[in-house]
Amino acid sequence: MDQKYQSLDTLEASFDEALSYLNFPATNWVKPISAKNGSAVLDVAIIGAGACGLALSFGLQREGIRNFKVFDRSDAGCEGPWVTTARMKTLRSPKHLTGPNMGLPDLTFRAWFTAKFSAEEWDVLDKIPTGIWMDYLVWVRKVTKPPVQNKTELVSFKSLDDCFELTLRTADDESTVFARHLVFATGRAASGGTYIPDAAKNLEPTRYAHTEDEIDFEELQGKRILVVGGAASAVDSSATALETGAGSVTMLVRAPEMPRLNKFKAIVYPGFMRGFYDLEPKQKWQFLKTGFDARIAPPRSSMLRLKSFENFTLKLGAGLNSLSLVNDEIIAKTHAGE
Questions:
Q1: What is residue 1's predicted lDDT score, i.e. its pLDDT?
Q2: What is the pLDDT of residues 289-299, one digit of tens each?
Q3: What angle do CA 314, 320, 323 make, to 5 degrees?
Q4: Smallest Cα–Cα separation from 80: which of 172, 173, 150?
Q5: What is the DSSP string of 65-88?
Q6: 252 by DSSP, 3-state: which?
Q7: Which among 221, 173, 226, 168 is positioned nearest to 197, based on CA atoms?
């Protein structure tokens, strides 16, 4: 099979040439302003340098907005969940979704993948492995050159008369940054924050973790693990624990049966991506509520990871009532017993 790009070098050369035709990066045209204390003010502060943060950064540069910065609390190359808390082996979405390409074919995952590997490997690829997706995002950052400051966490922000005041923390100190616009490109994990059941408050924090936490699964070898919940992150974390040598995993699921349908699978088309934005808030809420009320099934591939483990137990109808520590063991009282 013919392959347009024989290497990443040729792809990057083609991409750079295409950007020069588009006059990228465009000359900055926004008039600067200063805060009341005389400090410089960013036009945009972006929190998060994952796929969405990179796409927004690239779009701003194309539009001639240059006075902005991207802040991410993670190390470079670890932005987002892909090599930390995403414990699935592959992305859940189909490989043909084009990602943060901003309409440029040379910036798509497919262009990068075929240049790095081959067109033949693209043809047989099913879902995108999470590590390879992270490699692609690292490459997107390389070729689009966003102004990213890693190891920087947003502590707080407040609205002033004509801008926002951000308090940012690094390993060394805290600093104040002013910005006219503030964008949270913080992914799904930040939509409402994580939730720990009240029952867990009876336990020492060292005895439990949320699936959004970075977990050292090596320390769980040989131990019996309780997993509360049956969504995708619970399933993938259970599988990771078992594959790393956990003594057993028991998953407690409140529902009487595992959901088998993901209604959101039907939204992967351009009309939705364009049209949802323009819906009234009430319509957006009704749309999302319908999908969430039906409950989202964990991916079949994730469930199959568990199938081969005889030391995995699924407890349905086991809504959690309480957790307690007895003789160094965690006892869970559920609707299905202890």
A1: 40
A2: 998 888 888 88
A3: 110
A4: 150
A5: --SEEEE-SSPTT--SSTTTT--S
A6: strand
A7: 226
**DSSP structural state of residue 337:** B
User: Comparing C-alpha atoms, which of 84, 77, 48, 50 is closest to residue 236?
Assistant: 84
What 8-state DSSP symbol labels residue 331? E
If phi > 0 it is left, if psi is from -120 to 50 it is alpha, else beta; for residue 236 that is alpha
Beta bridge partners of 149: 71
Which run of H or of E encompasses 182? strand 174-184
Residue carrying the six token digits 């049956």: 230
- pLDDT per position as a tens digit, 6-44: 799 999 999 999 999 999 999 999 999 999 999 999 999
Residue 237 is given by DSSP the state: H
Of the listed ranges 188-192, 227-231, 248-252, the one predicted with least confidence: 188-192
CB atoms inside a 10 Å sphere around CB 157: 17
Could you tell me the pTM of the whole model?
A: 0.89
Residue 40, token pair as written in the block: 């410089």
Contacts of 29 (CB under 8 A, 6+ apart): 64, 65
**How distant, in Å, are the alpha carbons of 12, 18, 42, 178 from that of 160?**
42, 40, 14, 9
Among 41, 336, 26, residue whose Cα is nearest residue 180: 41
Cβ-proximal residues to 282 (8 Å cutoff; 6+ apart), any chain: none
Residues 165/171/172/176 CA torsion (nearest 10 deg):
0
Compute how many other C-beta atoms are within 10 angstroms of the C-beta atom of residue 250. 17
Structural tokens at position 30: 């926004």
C-alpha 242/C-alpha 239 separation (Å) is 5
The burial of 22, by beta-carbon neighbours within 10 Å (0-12 exposed, 13-18 middle, 19 or more buried), is given as exposed
Q: Which residue has the tokens 């033949």?
A: 120
- The pair of structure tokens assigned to 9 is 């070098």
